[in-house]
Amino acid sequence: MRLARFLLPAAVLVLCAASFPAAAGFRLETLAPGVHAAVRTDPPGLMVDANCLFIVNDDDVVVVDAPEASAELITALKRLTAKPVSYVINTHWHDDHVIGNALWRRAWPQARFIAHPSLREYLPGPGAANRAGMIAGAPQAAARLQQSLDSGSNLAGQPLDEEQRASYASDVALVADYMKVVPGTPDVLPDLGVDGVLILQQGTRRIEVRRVGRGHTEADLVVWLPQERVLASGDLVVWPVPLVGAEQSHVADWAGALDGVLALKPALILPGHGPVLHDLDYVRQLHELFADITTRVRAARERGLDLEATRQAVDLENWRRRFAGDSPVRDALFRRYVIDPAVASAWKAGSP
Length: 352
Ligand SMILES: [Zn+2]
Fold this sequence. Notes:
Layout: H1 10-13, E1 26-32, E2 35-40, E3 52-56, E4 61-64, H2 70-80, E5 85-89, H3 95-98, H4 101-107, E6 112-115, H5 119-122, H6 126-151, H7 162-181, E7 192-193, E8 197-202, E9 205-210, E10 222-225, E11 230-238, H8 251-263, E12 268-273, H9 281-302, H10 307-313, H11 317-324, H12 328-348
Parallel strand pairs: 4-5, 5-6, 6-7, 11-12
Antiparallel strand pairs: 1-2, 2-3, 3-4, 8-9, 9-10, 10-11
The structure holds zinc ion (ZN).
């Protein structure tokens, strides 16, 4: 996900969510024969670029997500195999998952692009406006972070610790990469839309593109390999803190979408951001968080509270402690991406 996409005020924009490219900041992990994850190595921060999955089949390759670092990813894939890319699947519409489409198309002009049909309206409309806001605001935000690094004081004016220093430095680098890659890059819209299930049988490999529900955005899709029990979740699952947007996310529906993930019983999950998950504990924790917020917001509305009063009533301090622990970086992420937007998002569900 990415900041701008959530239409935050310009100052916050850049600090918000997520996705920026970084110079080859990923490592390759083999999850099953022919199934390779490119996992970002940046420390947790306000800026991110997305993970990517290469599914190398008998005669071709299917790619999940097209991050900003797609030039480096294409080079890495070509070192793994000479097989051509047949399909690129975008798990949703944020730049860090789609902006690389143009590069994948240039490398493999026959490749087809698969996503939720809403990308065809979103990317030329609100997505273009969000991207423009990001391009306008990101350099300024990066400059503020650089100032913090230079002065040794964090954004709250306290001394920077090592974790914050690494996080801010990563954010600054990711903004620089974003500004190199994104402005002027054309959108490649999906030519295959999935609003249920699409099964690709590529030789002996079965690949399922599934809509399990909406949560992070309206356009959320997951990619499921039933034989290998590997799932690419997109930003329905993001570690160490979920990325919620007050406008774009659907907190009241998110636990339902995660029910769809849990029902598949994956052995390995490649989240949209964060390391490969080897069990379902973190997904259950996210499920519990979103179900809890939804229940409490609904109860507050039923008591007649308005949105502001509901924000006061729905205290997420226990959840903050559970997700952030003693980490100031995770604390800042949880406040920005959960406490601020999640109640407003859940509130929407009860609006007429
Ligand atoms: Zn996203």
